[in-house]
Amino acid sequence: MILLLLAWTLLTASLWTSGSGQVLQQEPVKVLYPQILGTEIMECDCTNITCDYVYWFRTMSNHLNQVQYIGKCNNADRDTYGDGVDIARFKISRRSSVSFTLRITNVTEKDAGTYSCVLKDRKNMEMWKSGILLRPGVIPPTLPPKPKNNSKPPVKPVCRCPKKNSPQDGCGSLVLWPLVGLLAGLALALICTLYYFSRLPKKCRHHFAKRR
User: Fold this and answer.
1) Model pTM score
2) Which stretch is the leader sequence (predicted)?
């Protein structure tokens, strides 16, 4: 339904703006939910062309064949409006060199519809923008909650000494290797002592034995 309203709006808008070239910018249709008696601002940005004019149109949600020309504005911020437009509530203005806006104050339910803008440069090149669906007083749909990620990061296992009568699981090496080193040190000390005494002269060994 939204795309049908947008297509009808752009088709009717082509009768109001007779340009030498027309480009339809593919963008997703934006939906706005203003509050009743609130203020809504819709933007129309220039892309790929140097904008000289902007034209605003709207299609009533309940009247598919009724497209209303709202008005236009140029780079000098001079605006004009179509017949039947409440200029006390509708205001088209130039925000910057690359942006125009349509502001609606005291929004009512009758303002519901699809709003579209057409940008035009000095060479009559037209850029048709995708429409904006206005739904005053409608509660925006609730977005589904994001799934929670309950997965915890993996914890590296800490090697602890096992209880009695339980498999070693590689922890026995923590005790075995220091014990092997100690025994190897004692063996080395014993070998060095025996080697020392074996190298002593016999007299020294006899004298050493006498003292004992």
Assistant:
1) 0.60
2) 1-21
- What's 89's domain CATH number? 2.60.40.10
Residue 61 lies in a domain: yes
Interval 106-138: pLDDT, tens: 999 999 999 999 999 888 888 888 789 999 999
Domain hosting residue 67, numbered range: 36-134
Percent of the chain topping pLDDT 90: 37
How far, in Å, are 38, 55, 83, 140 from residue 129 at the CA level?
Answer: 25, 11, 23, 23
Q: Which two tokens stand for residue 143?
A: 């977005």
Burial class of 108 by CB neighbour count within 10 A (0 to 12, 13 to 18, 19+): middle
* 20 within a domain of the structure (yes/no): no
Answer yes or no: are the C-beta atoms of 72 and 55 closer than 8 Å.
Answer: yes
Q: How many domains does the chain have?
A: 1
Contact 47, 66 (CB under 8 A): no
Which residues of the chain carry a pLDDT beneath 70?
1-23, 25-26, 63-65, 149-154, 156-182, 195-197, 199-212
